[in-house]
Design a protein that fits this description.
The structure holds two protein chains of two kinds. Helices cover about 50% and strands about 15% of the residues of chain A. Chain A contains ten helices and seven strands. In chain A, helix 2 packs parallel to helix 3 and helix 4 runs parallel beside helix 5. Chain B starts with a helix and ends with a helix. Chain B is globular, with a radius of gyration of 12 Å. Chain B has a single domain, classed as Non-ribosomal Peptide Synthetase Peptidyl Carrier Protein, Chain A. Classes of the chains: A alpha/beta, B mainly alpha. Chains A and B meet through helix 5 of A and helix 3 of B.
C-alpha cells in the first residue's frame, strides 16, 4: 500500500512539476498583447512563469491581455515601450530588473507587416518594418544580455518566418527583416553559448489569426493547399514551441530555427 | 570596497581573484598572474567572450560601465591597466 502511495505521489509530483515548469522564471515577451505574442505570454503564465508583457500602443488590447494575465498569475507586468527606441528598451528592461531582479527568458516577438510590391514600397514602409522587427530584436537582446550573463543562464527566442527562407512577393521588407533575425539568431548563439545562454528562433507558418480568418475563401483554399496538414496552425502551437526552446530540456539547442508550419510546402 | 580601490596593490589582488572566480579558471592562483602581462592571448589567454563576463562583473562590483570595445581593450590590457581604469572611474563617479 505504501509502495502504491509513494508511486502515486511521485507521479503526481511529476505532473505538478511539468505543469509549473516555468515556476519563478522571469520572462519578457515583446508584442505580447495580440496574436502570437499574447498566446506565448499566457502560455508562460499558465506554467508558472512571471510574465512581463510588452506592447507599443494599443491600450485596449493591453487591458484585455492584462485581465487574462491577472486571472492566471499575480506575477505579471504590463510594459508600454517602443522596441525601436533604445531609451524605451533601456527603461523597460531596467524596470523589470528593478522589480524582479533578473530576467531568464526573452521572446522577441514584436513585429509588423507592411506588404507592398517593391516598386510601391516607400522608404518609411521599409524603415518601419526593419526597425520594429530587426532593430527591436537587436535592442532587446543587447539590453537583456547583462542580466543573463551575470546569472550564466538565459534563453532568447526570436520569431522568424518562412518568408525569410523562401521569399514572398510583396514582402521584400518583411522577409529581409526576418532573414536578418534568422542570421542574427545564429551569430548571437555562437557569441554567448559558452555563457549558458541559448538563442533560437521559431518560424510559424500560416497561423489562425483575425487576419487569416478575414481572407476570402479562394485565398484560404490556396493557402490550405500549401500546408501538408491541410489546416492552419493555432497560436498555441507556436507558443508550445517557444516554451520548449525556453525550457531546461532544450539546454543543448542553440542557433536553430524551429519551423511550426504543419509541413508547409 | 573604497579601501581596496584606493590601494592599488590590494585592488590588483582583488581583481586577480575576481577574474579567477568569474571565469572559473582552474589551476591558476592570483600569484600566477603578472600585473603587467596582457590578459588576452599570449598573457592569461582570455578571449572576447571572457571579456563579456568581466564587463558584467566589473559593473556589478564597482558600478563602472565599460561602454564600448575600445574602452574595454584598454581596460583589459593588463591587471595594472584594469586597476587604473577602475580607480579613474571611481574618482570620476565621486566628482559627479
Amino acid at each position: 500500500m505504501l509502495w502504491i502511495f509513494t508511486l502515486n505521489f511521485n507521479f503526481l509530483s511529476q505532473i505538478i512539476d511539468d505543469l509549473m515548469e516555468f515556476k519563478h522564471r522571469r520572462v519578457i515577451v515583446t508584442g505580447a498583447t495580440k496574436g502570437l505574442g499574447k498566446a506565448i505570454a499566457l502560455s508562460f503564465a499558465r506554467k508558472g512563469a512571471w510574465v512581463a508583457a510588452n506592447y507599443s500602443s494599443d491600450d485596449q488590447s493591453a487591458a484585455s491581455t492584462e485581465s487574462e494575465l491577472a486571472s492566471l498569475t499575480k506575477k505579471y507586468l504590463l510594459l508600454k515601450a517602443d522596441v525601436t527606441s533604445k531609451d524605451d528598451v533601456d527603461k523597460m528592461i531596467k524596470s523589470v530588473v528593478d522589480q524582479w531582479e533578473y530576467v531568464d527568458i526573452l521572446v522577441n516577438n514584436a513585429g509588423i507587416i507592411r506588404d507592398k510590391l517593391l516598386m510601391f514600397l516607400d522608404e518609411d514602409d521599409w524603415d518601419r518594418v526593419i526597425d520594429v522587427n530587426l532593430k527591436g530584436t537587436y535592442l532587446c537582446s543587447r539590453t537583456i544580455l547583462k542580466t543573463m550573463i551575470a546569472r550564466k543562464f538565459g534563453r532568447i527566442i526570436n520569431i522568424t518566418s518562412p518568408s525569410a527562407f523562401t521569399g514572398r512577393a510583396g514582402q521584400t521588407n518583411y522577409s529581409a527583416s526576418k532573414g536578418g533575425i534568422t542570421s542574427f539568431t545564429k551569430s548571437l548563439s555562437k557569441e554567448i553559448a559558452r555563457l549558458g545562454i541559448t538563442v533560437n528562433a521559431v518560424s510559424p507558418g500560416f497561423i489562425s489569426t483575425p487576419m487569416t480568418e478575414s481572407l476570402n475563401q479562394d485565398i484560404k483554399c490556396d493557402l490550405l493547399n500549401r500546408i501538408s496538414m491541410r489546416r492552419l496552425g493555432q497560436p498555441e502551437d507556436v507558443a508550445e514551441a517557444v516554451l520548449f526552446l525556453a525550457s531546461v530540456k532544450a539546454g543543448y539547442i542553440t542557433g536553430q530555427v524551429l519551423a511550426v508550419d504543419g509541413g508547409l510546402i | 570596497m573604497q579601501e581596496i580601490i584606493n590601494n592599488k596593490g590590494k585592488l590588483c589582488e582583488f581583481l586577480k581573484k575576481m577574474i579567477i572566480e568569474t571565469l572559473r579558471l582552474e589551476d591558476i592562483i592570483p600569484g600566477d598572474i603578472d600585473n603587467k602581462a596582457s590578459l588576452f592571448r599570449e598573457g592569461l589567454g582570455l578571449d572576447s567572450i571572457d571579456a563579456l563576463e568581466l564587463v558584467v562583473a566589473i559593473e556589478k562590483i564597482f558600478n563602472i560601465i565599460i561602454e564600448d570595445e575600445d574602452v574595454g581593450k584598454k581596460a583589459f590590457a593588463s591587471i595594472n591597466a584594469l586597476a587604473v581604469f577602475i580607480q579613474d572611474g571611481y574618482q570620476r563617479a565621486l566628482k559627479n
